[in-house]
Amino acid sequence: MKKVLGLGNALVDLLIQMQDDTLIQQLNLPKGSMTLIDEVTAGNISKLIADKKITKASGGSAANTIHGIARLGVTCGYIGKVNNDELGHFFKTDMQNAGINTFLFNGQAGTGRANTFISTDSERTFATYLGAAVELTANELDPAVFAQYDIFHLEGYLVYNTDLIEQALQLARKNNMLVSLDLASYNVVADKIEFLKKIIPQYVDLVFANEEEAKAYTGKSPEEALDIISNECKIAVVKIGKNGSLIKSNGKTHKVGIVKTNALDTTGAGDQYAAGFIYGLNLNLPFDKCGQLGALLAGKVIEKYGARIYEQDWPEIMQNASHIAG
């Protein structure tokens, strides 16, 4: 089975369930928003939530995807940067406990974290401190690590570090890796559209985009965006929420539905979809079945809070994945 390597912003997800919205109002965080915060604000938040029940998980888009692929039984590695602090140790241990080979560097700033405030109506408000995660540099990438893997997955949030991305993509190409890119966020796409238009046709084999990201990249509807993106890479995937996903490769389009479930929190749905899809590619399955595996994992993660599938859900997932794979 092919081995998968991921590269992303290494963050620890801190999930805080609130009894009311007083805390986010106190922090001047618009409900439902994602706000980037500095180290001072991150420290203040840490003090304010110290007495609250907090659920922790290693996170970041690519880390979530790699975690899902590893739990499906694939050998995986992950490159990122943390601090030699409590959260950095937690991130490393949490990834390694999932069987992931970690290639983590130590940064000067504190380990990145995504404070996720969950309101009683399930709305999520994020205060994200990137910290050490964004200190990773191009010259820290080890060619020997890339040589050990067959598939390379990276998150779009990294495109602000163009030197890092280009070096990583060049190493992936040098080692004949299949390159997968999740566009990550529509505002990221809009900010770095010229850079993305440059690297996707040159380096990327598989692009994941949701409806908003696809529109930011092409200015078109999902179906038209799918056509445009598929002309720039080998496999294009556009996720269209409750309507499932569209996949196009070699001029052929596949439409895949969703797995009906009681959605509680959509955090991580796209990351886990990518995990299921890449797992399907690893098994050399047809693209529609890859999409079904993606829908399976996405449907399961939104049943509970957080971007990770719960431990007790994996046996059922493995059984259903085996059925899809035939």
Walkthrough of the structure:
The chain is α/β, with parallel strands linked by helices and 326 residues long. The chain has one domain (4-9, 59-111, 131-325): UDP-N-acetylmuramoyl-L-alanine:D-glutamate ligase (3-Layer(aba) Sandwich), CATH 3.40.1190.20. It contains 13 helices and 14 strands. The chain has helices spanning 22-26, 39-48, 61-71, 86-97, 143-146, 162-174, 186-191, 193-203, 211-218, 222-230, 269-282, 287-301, 314-325; strands spanning 4-7, 11-17, 34-36, 54-59, 76-82, 101-106, 112-118, 124-129, 151-155, 178-182, 206-210, 235-239, 245-249, 252-256. The chain has a nine-stranded mixed sheet with strand order 6-5-1-9-10-11-12-13-14, with helices on both faces. The two termini are 17 Å apart.
CATH topology assignment? UDP-N-acetylmuramoyl-L-alanine:D-glutamate ligase
The order of strands across the largest sheet is 6-5-1-9-10-11-12-13-14
CATH architecture: 3-Layer(aba) Sandwich
Number of strands: 14
CATH superfamily: Ribokinase
Distance between the termini: 17 Å
- State the CATH class: Alpha Beta
Biggest pleated sheet: 9 strands, mixed
Number of helices: 13
- Give the overall form: globular
- What are the secondary-structure elements, in order, as H or E? EEHEHEHEHEEEHEHEHHEHHEEEHHH
Topology at a glance:
Layout (H helix, E strand, L loop, with lengths): L3 E4 L3 E7 L4 H5 L7 E3 L2 H10 L5 E6 L1 H11 L4 E7 L3 H12 L3 E6 L5 E7 L5 E6 L13 H4 L4 E5 L6 H13 L3 E5 L3 H6 L1 H11 L2 E5 H8 L3 H9 L4 E5 L5 E5 L2 E5 L12 H14 L4 H15 L12 H12 L1
Parallel strand pairs: 1-5, 1-9, 2-7, 3-8, 5-6, 9-10, 10-11, 11-12
Antiparallel strand pairs: 2-4, 7-8, 12-13, 13-14
